[in-house]
Each structure stands twice: as C-alpha cells, then as structure tokens.
Amino acid sequence: MACDPPRASPVVGLVLTHKGDTFPSMASDRTYMRNDYERPRTTMLVWIVSALSAAFVLQLILGSPKLGFADQVLDAMVLTIGSVKQWHLWTLLTHSLLHDPGNFWPAVVTVFGLIFTGRHLEPLIGSRRFLALFVSSLAFSGLCWCAVHWTHGGAQIGAGAAIFAFLIVLSEVSAGTEMTLLFLPVSFRLRHLILAILTVETLALFFYELPGAAVPLGLSPSAHLGGMLAGWLFYKFVPTGDSWDRISRLSAPGFLRLKAPKRVPTAATRAPSATAPWRSGNLRADVDRILDKINSHGFGSLSDEEKQILDEAKDLLSKH
Question: Which domain holds residue 311?
Fold first, then answer.
C-alpha cells in the first residue's frame, strides 16, 4: 500500500507569478527561490529508518560465519521474560533494532510501514513528538507482550508496533485520511484499515497467542495491540495545544465511532469559509506557510484544511 505520491501543487506557480494588488510577487521573498536557500533538515523519520536499516545490516555482519557474534548481540538486545526479570529494561527498546536474519520480509515490511505512515504523521505532530511516540510505543508494546507471555516465555524482536501507533495517531489528528494501494487504484479510509487490523489482531491474540500457540506469519498480536493502545494514549494525554480538551472528553477513539468526530479547528489549521472575506496579509501568510511545507515534505503532506486554503487562493487569483 502507498499513499498518493507527492506532486507539485497546481496553485504554486499561480501564486508565485501573480502580479495583482492582492498578492504581490512572492518569488523574490521565498527562501528557496534565492541562492542562499538552506535545504530542509533531515526528518526524524529518515533518521529512524536509517537507524533500523543500519542495525539490521550490522546484525547480519556480526552473525556472519567469520565473526559469529550474533548470539552475544541477541542475548544483550532481544526482549525476553528472563531479561525483564533480570531488570535488563533496555531490551524494551533494543529489541526493535533486531530482525530475523533468515527472513528479510519482516524487516522490509517494517521499514515500508514506517515510511508509509510516518511521512504523513510527522508533519502533523512535529519531529519531537514523532520521536517520542516511536520510543514510547515500542516500550509500551514490549510491556504488553511481556504481560501476555509472562508464563510461557518467548522472545520478541522488531519495531512493527510503532507502525500501529502511527496509524492510530494519524487517524485521530487527520480523520479523513485516505490510503491507496500500491499496485491497484483502490482507495479506502484509514479508519477502515484500522478496524480490519484490530479485528484480525484481536482474534489472533485470543485464539493463538494467549493459549501459547504459534501465531501464523510470525505475528505478535499483543505487541501490535499494545502499539495501538500506546498511540491512542499518546494522542489523548500528550500536550499538543488542545490536549486538555481531549483529556476532558470521555469518548471512544475516532476509528471506533460510526461517524468521524467533529473537530474544533485551531489557529494553525483553521481553514477559511467560502463566504468569509480574505485579508491579503493573512492569506499570504497562510500560503507562505503551505508552500514551505510543500517544499519540505511534498504536496501529499498537506491536510484537508491546507488544500482548501490553496483552492480558495486559486479561486481568488482567477478573479484578478
């Protein structure tokens, strides 16, 4: 699955080249149109994916026949009930750096899953909260896995739980998000994908993992469901401007409701109504901010409100 690829906004050129009184030419005062333009910084998602990929390559090197250090690495980093009982609590995080060296698919799926969800989520919540969500979801999902496996043991590796946490937060902050399959022109709402995952993982938890049986495809429902719960708790309690309003509202997660919740727009995301008169200074500031976001993260990172601002700016410019 993949979201629509980033593409240039059809209104960008229109805004930059307009010479009317309402919008003076903005090509000269946009940073990336000048020679001294500073390239965007590397996103937190790129750092995370690079770290996971480098760790997997290092794991393969250490496990080669010439070195044979794989056992020592796994013993120190893999999450097991024994490691937790010995207070090796760092394994709640280090287990995410490991993957099965005999099977590349879990590592590949994890990387693409993080990219698939993270590239849309990070611009919405910021790099610091994005990293905090990644780390906290891994630790919390590890605790959930330990709670389920406390009696019959086992081992847990991989960072797949973070993908499920990203999905939950993304569905809460952008309820109307749609996804498109990679090879088929089929789109669906994110909440429908989450409900399907929640159903499958819950059934696998009760019919396989809790009884101690091997889960098909090597899945870890307890860790995945723990990641989803961590994502919802993160959205509910981590301060993001309107957090106290969210905490005071005792309501089910958005993906469990029949209708998407109505959100009160904040100052940063409020979209103007079609009938509200535009003041050129405010619109120009909004368009500047959106163009910077397109330049840094691509058109696909825009929210529905930001796309509406561009559409209304395009309509306004077409009248001049």
Answer: 12-32+263-318
